[in-house]
Amino acid sequence: MEEEAAIKEVITGHEDKNVNEEIFTKVVRAGKRTYFFDVKATRKDDYYLAITESKKRLGKEGKVFYEKHKIFLYKEDFEKFSDGLKDAVTYIDNGNNILTTPAPSSVVENSEEKSTISNIEFTNVEFEDLGKK
To answer: What is the pTM for the complete model shown?
Structure first.
């Protein structure tokens, strides 16, 4: 656990306790990446989830640094986010076949023209590719 706290401090440059009250943390190591799932509280004691993807990198001068990306997810969005994540994972697990779960009620369907998600070619995009021209 000390190693996880040390990694977190290196990534953020400070201890989160001083910024927002951290209620719960789950660290998931997945290959070259580490994911942090941090439950935090706002000043009004509303909980939210901060998801951080961290990847150890080697700089131009040989100095190690951590590249990170964050998502802040608030309580009112948990259900929609969870549904979208489940649909995306199901789509991938089914070998990119037609999505078998019903479309969410927030999607308006045109009665004359209904479309389904089918096999579509996707380009594998890495975070490193973003911003390059």
So the answer is: 0.56
